[in-house]
Design brief:
Elements lengths: L12 E7 L2 E10 L4 H12 L4 E12 L1 H16 L3 E5 L3 H9 L7 E3 L2 H20 L1 H5 L2 E11 L6 E8 L3 E5 L9 E8 L3 E13 L11 E6 L4 H14 L7
Parallel strand pairs: 2-3, 3-4, 4-5
Antiparallel strand pairs: 1-2, 6-7, 6-9, 7-8, 8-11, 9-10, 10-11
Helix pairs in contact: 1-2
Length: about 250
C-alpha cells in the first residue's frame, strides 16, 4: 500500500530592488517555519544602512503561524534600528490571518506600491513638521465641543465631548471609553476651519476619577497616522482660538 508523503513547500523566494533610500522586498511563495531568509534579508538591509523597507505580498500564497513569527521578528528588528517596515498588495486571505491575531493593527498595510511609497514620504514630511513645530503642536486649547467616535470593529458611533485639543491629541469626556491601545475612528467639527474632520486616534490613557474627577469618565487620545493637511487644520484652529496672552 502506497502512503502519500506530505509535500514540502518551497522556501520563500525574495527578490530585492531599491528606489532611492527604500528597499523593496518582493516575496513569493509561503511564509512559514522555513522563512528565516526573510529575517536575514531584512537584517542585511538594515546593516547596509537602509531604514525604509517595503514588503510586496502580491505573490505570497500563504502565511502560517510560524511565518507570522518571522514577520514579527523582522518588523521588530526594523523598529529597533529606528527604521520603518510596511506591507503592500496583501491578498485578502492573508489579511484575514493578520486580523485573527490582531497584527493588522501593528503592521502598516497599503493596497499598492505607490501608496506605500507615498506613506513613507508623508511620514518623513510629518517628522520634519514635528521637529520644527514641536512647541506649536503641544499648545493645548480648552474646549467643550461634540465628538463622535467608535472602534474599528463597532458599527455605531458613540458621543462625547472634547475637553481640550492639541496638535498631537485630545482629551475626550464620554460615558463610553475604550481600553488603552484601541484605535478609534473620530468625527469632530472645528468651525470655521474644518466643518467636519474625520480622523483616527489611539487611546493612550484613561482618566482616573481620583485625579481628574471633572473629566471622568474620559480618555486621552493621540492622533493615529494623521496626515499633514489634517494636522495643519487642527493647529490653525488652536492658534485661531488661543487667547492672545496664552503662553507659548
Amino acid at each position: 500500500m502506497l502512503v502519500a508523503l506530505p509535500v514540502k513547500t518551497a522556501m520563500l523566494e525574495i527578490k530585492s530592488r531599491r528606489i532611492k533610500t527604500t528597499v523593496i522586498l518582493e516575496l513569493s511563495g509561503t511564509i512559514d517555519i522555513d522563512s528565516a531568509n526573510l529575517i536575514e534579508r531584512v537584517g542585511q538591509a538594515l546593516t547596509d544602512g537602509y531604514r525604509d523597507i517595503l514588503c510586496d505580498f502580491e505573490s505570497v500564497t500563504s502565511v502560517d503561524y510560524s511565518g507570522l513569527s518571522a514577520l514579527a521578528i523582522a518588523f521588530k528588528n526594523t523598529v529597533n534600528h529606528k527604521g520603518r517596515m510596511k506591507f503592500f498588495s496583501v491578498p485578502a486571505h492573508i489579511m484575514k490571518t493578520f486580523s485573527l491575531v490582531c497584527l493588522d493593527k501593528v503592521f502598516e498595510i497599503f493596497p499598492d506600491e505607490k501608496s506605500a511609497l507615498k506613506s513613507l514620504e508623508d511620514d518623513t514630511h510629518i517628522s520634519e513638521i514635528q521637529r520644527k513645530n514641536l512647541r506649536r503642536r503641544f499648545k493645548r486649547l480648552p474646549l467643550d465641543i461634540d465628538i463622535q467616535f467608535k472602534s474599528l470593529f463597532d458599527q455605531q458611533f458613540h458621543h462625547g465631548k472634547v475637553m481640550n485639543i492639541s496638535g498631537i491629541g485630545m482629551l475626550v469626556f464620554a460615558e463610553k471609553v475604550y481600553p488603552i491601545g484601541e484605535i478609534l475612528e473620530m468625527k469632530v467639527s472645528l468651525l470655521p476651519i474644518a466643518p467636519m474632520l474625520a480622523l483616527k486616534g489611539k487611546v493612550v490613557w484613561l482618566i482616573q476619577k481620583e485625579i481628574q474627577p471633572q473629566f471622568y469618565p474620559g480618555m486621552g487620545i493621540e492622533y493615529y497616522h494623521i496626515d499633514c493637511p489634517t494636522q495643519e487644520k487642527i493647529l490653525e484652529f488652536i492658534e485661531r482660538n488661543l487667547p492672545l496672552d496664552s503662553p507659548s
